[in-house]
Amino acid sequence: MGKIAITERVTGHTELIGLIAYPIRHSMSPTMHNEAFKKLGLDYVYVCFEVDNSTLKDTVAGLRAMKVRGWNVSMPNKGPITEYLDNLSPVSQIIGACNTVVNDNGVLTGTITDGVGAMHSLKEEGVAYVGKKMTIIGAGGAATAIQVQAALDGAREISIFNLKDKFFAHAEKIVNDLNERTDCRVTLFDLADHAALKRELDSSDIYIDATSCGMKPLEDVVAIPDKSYLRPDLVVMDTVYAPRETKLMKWAQEVGCHTFNGLGMMLYQGAAAFKLWTGKEMPVEHIKDILF
């Protein structure tokens, strides 16, 4: 593919879309969105901004003032940014976080598309989750979005495991909200309780690891103690996509599980944000050819 002159892609009318996070230079989102803009002939450009909590308030004010159409939000800003927005979607209200902001003439609305992306990824893999039991490890922003979306979509039961860290109390609130608002039975466990983890995985249809285990610098870390916690008919999804194959995925493949990484989730959460910003469907098959 030949190089495209910058003047062919950026004009005086180009709309800006961004991503604010720290660190962020590893992100595949600029490639995904810029290729989609190019494919559809849309006059937008997507760029990364390394922003942490210390400069987040000023950044949001600046993006609003510059009439930036929208942006993605990743760690460590997903929760804190909600303080600086005008509206939150119902899912973001439950979670208390967002990963996508839309700027409608100065009115900033936050939502979270991670859960939609994860559920779409399961469907793409031919995995039925409505009426099924899931075990999900993690209680951060992406993990919580997956839990909320799965419960809203009709999962029968969700067992959540997390260390008793700063996210645990928030996870307790999420569990209470989901048990009150949905027909899904949701239970929270301490990840250190290995007997409970084994029991819940043994009775689950789907296991989703929504932690940072497997990513740098945790490449050799797995949230479960060993391969005996897996069985061949368990579907295993790891939300990490860099590296493409984590240690958990290798274990799952050795056991014979249907297993896949977070690329599909990343693609479909991006597609949902893309539509919010542009009103257009992302050309996902074209993007798959580039990313996958």
From TrEMBL:
One term of GO molecular function: NADP binding
Span of domain Shikimate dehydrogenase substrate binding N-terminal: 19-101
Gene3D superfamilies, per database record: Leucine Dehydrogenase, chain A, domain 1, NAD(P)-binding Rossmann-like Domain
Secreted in keyword set: no
Active site per database record: 78 (proton acceptor)
Oligomer and partners: Homodimer.
Family as reported in the entry's similarity comment: Belongs to the shikimate dehydrogenase family.
Protein name (record): Shikimate dehydrogenase (NADP(+))
Organism: Megasphaera vaginalis (ex Srinivasan et al. 2021)
